Amino acid sequence: MQSFVDFFVFYTDSDEEEAREDVTTDNSTNPEQVFFAALRSDAVLNAFEALDYRERMLVAAHLGFCPECYEIYEIKEKGGAPIFAPRKKKSLVDLAIEHELADPDTVHEILERAYGKMRKKMGGSGLSL
Ligand SMILES: [Zn+2]
Q1: Whole-prediction pTM
Q2: pLDDT digits (tens, 9 = 90+) for 56-76
Q3: Is residue 129 part of a domain?
Q4: Which of 8, 24, 62, 120 has its CA 20 to 30 A from that of 103?
């Protein structure tokens, strides 16, 4: 949503009466940006929650996040010390085996159907995946 023009904020210093250019604008705390990011994540999570149990488990495991708390990191052990590491994204083959499905194509079909459901549900919110 941030355009090239938005990046350059021009303002006039009341003391010096000269236009200045601020190229250090950080929109990550811009209320409008934060609002729309929150709205979008709400829409995504609502669409995810509307999936059935197996779809949620497969989507989360394939994309690498926790289906309960949406965390994308997990605590692992490295050299005897706990570390935060990104959750591993599971392959279609691994998911087929873990969920006792016929083959990777079946997993792929279930995932595509789940993403389709999410897109459809989010369509009504005016936001898209
Ligand atoms: Zn979790």
Answers
A1: 0.69
A2: 999 999 999 999 999 999 999
A3: no
A4: 120
Q: What is the DSSP letter of 102?
A: S
Calculate how far, in angstroms, residue 87's C-alpha sits from the geometric centre of ligand 1. Answer: 11
Q: Kindly state whether residue 62 falls inside one of the protein's structural domains.
A: yes
Looking at the structure of the chain, the number of domains it has is 1
Distance 70 CA to ligand 1 centre (A): 6
Asked whether 111 and 44 are in contact (CB, 8 A), the reply is no
Q: Would you state the structure tokens that stand for residue 32, as one six-digit string?
A: 């409008």
Distance of CA 77 to the CA centre of its chain: 26
Range of the domain at 118: 4-123
The residue with tokens 């691994």 is 94
Q: What percentage of the chain reaches a pLDDT higher than 90? A: 57
Within 8 A by CB and 6+ apart from 51, the residues are: 59, 114, 117, 118
CA-nearest of 108, 104, 129 to 47 is 129
Residue 128 lies in a domain: no
Burial (CB count within 10 angstroms: exposed 0-12, middle 13-18, buried 19+), residue 11: exposed
Owner of token pair 């929150």: 38
Would you say residue 97 lies in a domain?
Answer: yes
